[in-house]
């Protein structure tokens, strides 16, 4: 069983919050915690409940697995970085990301 790394979890939360252009105060309000508690979570000095994990997932548009353990490593490739970006993509923009990737793949010759 993989141990939880609270500092890494906090960093992933902060990274996604800034990716979504959300202030600490705004995220704290949406998750229903104090900005100070959120700062402690982002620094990895405090943990949080399953209830708050669920709220983080909803507000940050991330899976619980992505928050707790980070991106999956797919055979040591950069696929994990692309998949992490897609996981972080807000639902309403997800179809655009899919269209862009599809168009990119259709317009480029495969590398031999």
From TrEMBL:
Residues 13-67 form the HTH cro/C1-type domain. Gene3D superfamilies: lambda repressor-like DNA-binding domains (1.10.260.40). InterPro entries: Cro/C1-type_HTH, Lambda_DNA-bd_dom_sf. PROSITE patterns: HTH_CROC1. It comes from the Bacteria. This is Helix-turn-helix transcriptional regulator. It comes from Eubacterium limosum.
């Amino acid at each position: 069983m993989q141990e939880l790394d609270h500092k890494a979890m906090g960093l992933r939360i902060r990274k996604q919050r800034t990716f979504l252009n959300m202030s600490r105060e705004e995220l704290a309000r949406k998750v229903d915690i104090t900005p100070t508690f959120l700062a402690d979570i982002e620094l990895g000095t405090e943990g949080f409940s399953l209830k708050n994990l669920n709220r983080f997932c909803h507000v940050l548009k991330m899976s619980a697995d992505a928050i707790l353990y980070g991106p999956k490593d797919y055979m040591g490739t950069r696929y994990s970085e692309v998949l992490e970006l897609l996981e972080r993509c807000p639902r309403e923009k997800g179809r655009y990301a899919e269209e862009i990737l599809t168009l990119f793949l259709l317009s480029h010759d495969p590398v031999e």
